[in-house]
Specification:
2 copies of one chain form a homodimer.
Chain A lengths: L10 H16 L6 H8 L13 H24 L6 H18 L1 H8 L9 H22 L10 H19 L13 H16 L9
Helix pairs in contact in A: 1-2, 1-3, 1-5, 3-4, 3-5, 3-6, 4-5, 4-7, 4-8, 6-7, 7-8
Chain A binds a DNA duplex (30 and 30 nucleotides) through α2.
Chain lengths: 208, 208
DNA sequence: ACATGATGTAAAAGCTGCTTACATTTCATG
DNA sequence: CATGAAATGTAAGCAGCTTTTACATCATGT
């Protein structure tokens, strides 16, 4: 891991990777600028050439997390094909898969206390993620009769809240708050099906 | 705020109050053992007489948070009176009120990364909170016909997840992730009503 | 009264965050 | 090429936090 050249060559990326590794190991609290520098093989002052301070690195990790999240979710949604309901099921599983396989990203995005207004690119990345949920909600609601159709914004907020709740409480392996009698994926899918049935969308879910 | 006696008298409590104050101001990341000691008017080494380390203080704050949370929620549920649906609405508002008015407690409980298994009393306090939700779900499901009745554990998990999702994403004033066209309370209540309607409980919610 | 334990302080070692001054490399431009 | 500027890294240092150790002070029970 030691380098031969004076210049690292790609320190910015290396620091982000180091941050992800450390956050994944010890959580967002036990992540240290100096540790990231060590892991990248540079002096403790070098990171300041690429990030204003430790918080700026955290914010960048969160931004990248939202960008990866957007890729994963939009791929899962796949334009709503073949039908919105099965696409939504894929979307939910992709949401939980991201929280499980990328806990470092997820906690930097939602739990590290990064002030969203600190970085315009960060809020934009978050907006693009939400736009996917918004689009999915719109496709689902489109099958309801026009009058009395519930607002798709509210549906998107409900689905997002339920997904985040399941992911944050039960969706991260050992750090989950509770043992479940089912997988988080099944829990979320069942909840969304009940919710959609309450809206008049889809089939009544099989109980049990 | 300076004391006259050599011994503080109630340093343990004072440190917890100081921690809550500091976490409320700067978030769980920017909370410092030394700062809490300063705020309590003692030397930086004094807290170690009452807490093994900084994380132990965080864990105790989280435990107290769950205990306060239990009091607030059980009072709101009030045995399900006068009827489970309106009691559940109170419960939801109490959940969000706690997250809003006690953000320091809430973030120490759910976002600070306190390992739950570190303290048996902590997990027990969490269990007692969940027992309230479990009880509420049981009361709600009791009005459904016995065969095909959905498991109340699952319902409790869904309601908890939705509540936590709304609270974490939108329920903390300035630190909320997004501006909403409605209050978090209304968002949660609408979501729960749709969900319960999907289960066959309660009246169909008014759209809009 | 007085021994003992509980609770505080002082001092110090090791770490981190961050700044400043300096060293090395890369790169554009003539 | 040559060469100066910009980019990127290092070294050294200050301030603050965490934690430990040795010591000081107070409270309590017999």
């Amino acid at each position: 891991m030691s380098r031969r050249t004076y210049h690292h060559g790609n320190l910015r990326e290396a620091l982000i990777q180091a941050a992800l590794e450390l956050i994944g190991e010890k959580g967002h609290a036990g992540f240290t600028f100096a540790d990231a520098a060590r892991l990248a093989g540079v002096s403790p002052a070098a990171p300041y050439r690429h990030f204003r301070d430790r918080d700026a690195l955290m914010a960048d990790v969160a931004r990248l997390g939202f960008e990866q999240f957007e890729i994963a979710l939009s791929r899962a949604w796949n334009g709503g094909a073949p039908d919105p309901l099965s696409a939504l099921a894929r979307l939910g599983r992709a949401y939980l898969a991201f929280a499980r396989t990328e806990p470092a990203y997820y906690s930097s995005m939602f739990e590290a206390g990064v002030p969203p207004e600190s970085d315009a690119a960060l809020v934009q990345a978050g907006e693009r993620v939400f736009a996917i949920l918004r689009q999915a909600a719109g496709a689902l609601v489109a099958r309801l009769p026009e009058p009395g159709r519930p607002p798709s914004l509210m549906i998107a907020l409900h689905i997002w809240s339920l997904s985040h709740g399941v992911a944050a409480l039960f969706g991260r392996g050992d750090r989950a708050r509770r043992k479940l009698p089912m997988s988080p994926e099944d829990l979320l899918e069942a909840g969304v099906l009940v919710y959609l049935h309450g809206l008049g969308i889809g089939l009544p879910p099989a109980p049990g």
